[in-house]
Amino acid sequence: MLRRGLRVLLESGGPIRVVAEAADGDRLVSAVRAHRPDVALVDVQMPGKDGLTALRDLRALGQPPATAVLTTFDLDEYVADALRYGANGFLLKDAEPAVLVRAVQDLAAGGAVLDPRITARLLPRLRSMGDTTREARLVRSLSAREQQVLRLLAVGRSNADIGARLGLTEATVKSYVSTVLSKLGAQNRVQAALMAQRVSDLDDVDPR
């Protein structure tokens, strides 16, 4: 019922097309291999292979889709595991329909999404995690333009949005994002965004 409702919601009056559904983690991985979707919404608890294990398996694919964990559970360990396994976002099932649709569109455009309720609760802990001295050094190693891109990436802007704000083509922004992730040692945009949240150096960089 939930999958059917999500399909109707996502496909109603917009550019989103649902190409497959999966009842468990094994079917999810198979569906992604078969259809190569732009975005995959993954539940945490599924029969057989759970969603977090499936996320880990999706990372082994050559070009995995942008993934967001969609669940009723918002426990800290789920968020941490999902991000460690390469998720580009974490959403709660009781989010407003417009929020879910926008999240899928943002993910497809190269953005990252994190439910504000999760962010508000986890941010104090996330800011205290990691080697902030090392992270600050890595951020300072970025060029001024790369720091601008990181600042906008950290607030969830897509490549197209970043390009529009900085007067860059989307292809150029994509190149900058790849460089930023490489320099920071981040696996994806969400990890880079969380690193930016823990480092104050970006406060002095005008994101325009």
From TrEMBL:
Keywords attached to this entry: DNA-binding, Phosphoprotein, Transcription, Transcription regulation
Keyword Zinc applies: no
Residues bearing the modification 4-aspartylphosphate: 43
InterPro entries: CheY-like_superfamily (IPR011006), NreC/VraR/RcsB-like_REC (IPR058245), Sig_transdc_resp-reg_C-effctor (IPR016032), Sig_transdc_resp-reg_receiver (IPR001789), Tscrpt_reg_LuxR_C (IPR000792), WalR-like (IPR039420)
All copies of domain HTH luxR-type, residue ranges: 135-200
Keyword Transcription attached: yes
Pfam family, one: GerE
Location of the Response regulatory domain: 1-108
Protein name: Response regulator
Organism: Saccharopolyspora rosea
